[in-house]
Amino acid sequence: MPNLLSNIVRNLFGKPATRRYPFEKREPFAGTRGHLEIDPDTCIYCGICSKRCPADAIAVTREPKTWTLDPYRCIVCGYCVEVCPKRCLGMNAAHVRPPQSKPADVV
Ligand code: SF4
Ligand code: SF4
């Protein structure tokens, strides 16, 4: 019984155990890869990232110049960042809110 009372008092007046997401954000843990980002101004649309991606998550076309990522396929391995000859891909560890709906072409 004394344990129960002390637990109740601690929970009533102590700091909350959970975070008020999304109002309070946590800094990413060390080593977090986050998500893939591209600098479209530097990309030459060579398609190397698409060919090397083990998850087939990137689609590149030269004409018209398009680069698209399927976030539901990407396993965040970072291999495309390593192989890009223009260094225009990078991992951003910042938290992003999940999409509210799937793109129409993803099944
Ligand atoms: S490898 Fe780099 S430069 Fe080539 S298409 Fe991919 S992101 Fe663009
Ligand atoms: S991080 Fe890995 S899985 Fe994601 S797009 Fe790049 S190579 Fe593909």
Key phrases:
single chain; 107 residues; alpha+beta; two-stranded antiparallel ribbon
Brief overview, please?
With about 110 residues, the chain is an alpha+beta fold. The chain has helices at about 1-15, 50, 80-85; strands at about 35-40, 60, 65-70, 90.
Please describe what this structure looks like.
With 107 residues, the protein is an alpha+beta fold. The protein has three helices and four strands. It has helices spanning 2-13, 48-52, 79-83, and strands at 35-38, 58-61, 66-69, 89-92. A hairpin with a 4-residue loop joins strand 2 and strand 3 (66-69). It starts with a helix and ends in a 15-residue tail after the last strand. The model has no long low-confidence stretch (mean pLDDT 89). The structure holds iron/sulfur cluster (2 copies). Residues 36, 53-55, 57-58, 69, 74-80 line the site of one iron/sulfur cluster (SF4). Residues 36, 53-55, 57-58, 69, 74-80 line the site of one iron/sulfur cluster.
In whole angstroms, how far apart are the ends?
A: 54 Å
Order of helix and strand elements from N to C terminus: HEHEEHE
The number of helices is 3
Shape field: elongated
Which architecture of one domain would the CATH scheme give at its second level?
A: 2-Layer Sandwich
Strand order of the largest sheet: 1-4
Sheet-strand content, in percent, reads 5-15%
CATH class of one domain: Alpha Beta
